[in-house]
Write a structure and sequence with these properties.
mainly beta; Beta-galactosidase, Chain A, domain 5; globular
Length: about 325
Amino acid sequence: MYKLALTALFAAASLAAQVNVTQGNNEIVVSIDGKPYTTFYYGPEVAKPYLYPLRAPSGVRVTRGYPMDTAPGESLDHQHQRAVWFAHSKVNGIDYWNNEFSYKTPNLGHIFVTKIDKIQSGPKSGEIDATAEWKDPAGKVVLVENRKMIFHGGGPNRVVDFDFTLTAVETAKFEDEKDGVFGIRLASELEEPNAPGTKSQPKEPLRTGVMTCADGKTTEKNCWGTRADWMDFSGTVQGEKVGLAILDHPENPGHPTYWHARGYGLFAANIFGRNAFTNKKEPEGSVTLKPGEKMRFRYRVVIHPGTLADAKMDDLYKAYAAGK
């Protein structure tokens, strides 16, 4: 009788949790207030772990579906840009970014989760901790990644905190390249209209995205390769005004980060591309870790209803920097 009562108590507590985190088969599902929010995908068939999708508080998806799902009028480029990921395109010459198993390019590395260290649901937040190995094409472990992802409930925004620690097993040189490090591929509606480098965008869904960095600059032309505390894409998705921002933690290496942000919907924070982003006007941005050395990166993702002005992003950044 006691065991039955205890089981019922735990079940009730789980149902009452505002943020629920549930283990599946090589995936972990996160729901908020009983509604789907995102899923963490990993396993031997996944080239690098990723979250898909991210949703606004209303449930509207703010990340692209392709290649996991497809929608009419969605951009079908860059298959490796799977919603939300963490990687770099050249570590000891190995590409962990453009690394789909179907790609035939040489020197592709892969990132495999080896252990789920923690899954926790709660009334205010839920958490996933995982250990992963960055392996070279021969299967040798170059880096061990420890990540923590905290999903916050409540409103009016959807907030996720990411904390990555990389430990070198072999000497690991992160080379000066633009393709890195913490990336998000946005929903088609958040792409810039007539984005640079885009041959042709479908008329539907309507592209409405406005890229803005912390100093107030807008558009890829002015924001790509700049350094800023945060960057935001805002627009209208399925008739709803919404935006998504990445905040760079003030204690990250190389803060404030450079932004590899493209009008076609790529949105990434990357400290390693100083030459690439400045046309060699800045010193080279490569960083080398010796075996046992560590490097830590923290980011906050904020999905907000309304416009960027409505979100008051400078205030949100100050709170993040203060540890709130």
